Amino acid sequence: MEDTKLENQISVTVVSSFSKDGMGFNQQLEKRFGLWNTVALQYSLICSGLAIGTFLSTVIGVGGAPFLIYGFIFAVTLGLIICYSLAELASAFPHSGAQEHWSYCIAPHRFKKVLGFSSGILSCAGWIFSCFSSSYVCSMFIISLVEIYHPDFVSQNWHYYVVFTGITLLAYVLNVFLINLLPILTNVLAFIINIGTLFIVITLLVRAHPKQTVNFVFKEITNDSGWSSNGVVFFISLLPSIVSVCLFDGAVHMTDEISNPKRNIPLVMVIANTLSAVVAFICAIIYMFCVVNVENLNNPVGGEPIIQLMYDAFESKALTTIGVLFLILSFVGSTMLYYTTTSRLFWAFAKNNGLPFGTYLGSVHNTLKSPVYSITLVVTICLILGTIMFGSSTALNALLGSAMVCINMSYIFPIICLLIRSKFALSPQKRFAFFNEDEIQPVLNPSKGVPYFTLGRFGMPLNVIAVLWVCLLMVWTTFPVYYPVTPDTMNYASAVLGVTCVIGIILGFTCLKNYSHIVNSSHAYD
C-alpha cells in the first residue's frame, strides 16, 4: 500500500489531456510488450553482430584489424557506461520521451524548458537520421544481391531510392495497420538475426581460406588515412564500434507499451546492449580472421564490405545469397522497429507541445491503436531526406554519419543535470533527493530511497565518465577520416548538427512558449 500511495503522488508529464473520441483519436497506447520481447526489440534495432561487418572497408585502411579490436573494447565499454547511466534515469523517470523528459525533470527550474526542448530536438533528429540510414543500408543490400547475379548491372540513384521508398512505406504499413504484430515480429526478428549471424560466422570459419594470421588481426596496424599520427587514427577508427553498439534509449521510447517500466526498461537496456556488445566483439574477431582478399574490401560488391567478405570467403553464389538474404531480412525487420521507436519519441515530444500540431502528433488512433500522425510525419521526413540520393554524395554521407552526433549529444543533457543538481553526491539516496515538491518527482523504491534500478555508489563516477566520453566522442565523430582534407573527404556531420540547431531554434520560436510537462498524474504507468 505504501508503495502504491507513494507512486500515486509522483508526477509526470501529461500535456493537452484532451479526448478526441469523436474524431477517432485519444492519447493512450496499449501495453503490448513484456520484458523479453522488448529485449528482442532493442537487440534487433542495432543488429550489432551484422552491423559491424558493414564497416570493414573503413577498418582495413584506417588502423586495420588491431585498431578495430582494441578500439571496440575501449569505445563499447565507455558506451555501455552511458547506457547504464541512462538506465538509472529510465528507472527514476519512466517516460517515452526519454532524455527529453529526464532533462526537463532534473534541470534547474529556469533551464527546464530550454534543456528539455534542446534534448528533444537532438533526439528526434538523431532518430530520424537513424531511420534514414537503416532504410538506405537495406537498399544497398538488395542492390548488392542484384549485382552478384548481374555483374554488368550498373546501379543508378533512382534504383536505390525506389527500394528505399518501398522499405519505408512497408514500415509505415506495419506500424499503422499491423501494429498488433509488433511483439511477434520482435521475437521472430531476434531469431532471424541470431540464426543469420551464426550462419555467416560459422560458414566464414569453415570456408575462408587462407585465414589471416594472428599478427594481422592483433598486431599489424595499417594507416592509409594520410594522418601521420597513429593516435589520431585510433580515435578515427572508433566509429564502427560506436555505431555498432548504440541507440541505448531505443527501448525507453516504448515505456507506455511495456508493463512495469520502472523495473523492466532498465533491465532491457542492460541486457540487450550488453549482449549486443559481446556478440559484435566475437563477430569482429571472426570477420578479421576471415578476410581472404583485403584489396577487394576497398571496392566491395554494392558498396557493402560484409557481402564482399562472404563472396570472397564462401566461393559460392548460393551460400553468399543465403548470407545476403539473412542480412536483408535482419536489416529490413530492424528498420521496421526504427520507425516504431522514432514515432513513439515524436508522439511523446508532441504531447508536451515540443512539436507543432501537438494535439494531432500526440494522439493515438482509437481503432488502429497507433500514433498515426507521428508515424506519418516520420515517414514523410525520411522520404524527403531520401531525395538527397539524387544529389550530392557528400551530403548523403553527412546524413548517414550524423545520427550518432545528435543522439549522443542528447544523452549528455540529463546526465550533466543530475551531476550538478546532486552536487556530485556519491550516496545513491542523495543523488535523487534534491527535488522540490512542485517538481516532477523521481520514482523511488520506498524501502531504499533509490530508483528500482540503481548504480549505487558507482553512479556518480560512472556519470562523470559518461559525460567525458560523450565530449570526446563528439570530437572524433565529426573529425575527417582522411588527410589531406578536401571537399569530398570532409566530415560534414558538424554541418548537419548546425542545420539541426537552426531548425531547433525556429521550432523554439513556435513551440517553446507552450512546451511544458504538466504535473498531474503518476510516473508509474502500472
Mean pLDDT: 88
Tell me the series of helices and strands, N- to C-terminal: HEHHHEHHHHHHEHHHHHHEHHHHHH
Number of strands: 4
Question: How many helical stretches?
Answer: 22
Return Rg in Å: 23 Å
Structurally, how many domains make up the residues? 1
| Low-pLDDT sequence parts | 1-24
Main β sheet profile? 2 strands, antiparallel
Shape: globular
Assign the CATH topology. Amino acid/polyamine transporter I
Q: How are the strands ordered across the major sheet?
A: 1-4
| CATH homologous superfamily grouping | Amino acid/polyamine transporter I
Name the structural class.
Answer: mainly alpha
Name of the level-1 CATH class: Mainly Alpha
Strand content: under 5%
Going by CATH, the architecture would be: Up-down Bundle
Distance from first to last alpha carbon: 14 Å
- Classify the helix fraction into a percent range: 55-70%
Describe this structure in words.
This protein has 526 residues and is mainly α. The protein is 63% helix and 2% strand. The chain has one domain: Up-down Bundle (Amino acid/polyamine transporter I), CATH 1.20.1740.10. The chain contains 22 helices and four strands. The strands form two sheets. Strands 1-4 form a two-stranded antiparallel sheet. It has a two-stranded antiparallel sheet with strand order 2-3.
Explain the layout of strands and helices.
Elements: H1 2-9, E1 25-26, H2 35-46, H3 48-51, H4 56-61, E2 62-63, H5 64-92, H6 99-106, H7 112-149, H8 157-177, H9 182-207, H10 214-218, E3 222-223, H11 230-236, H12 239-244, H13 261-289, H14 305-314, H15 317-351, H16 358-361, E4 364-365, H17 372-386, H18 393-400, H19 403-421, H20 428-431, H21 459-476, H22 493-511
Antiparallel strand pairs: 1-4, 2-3
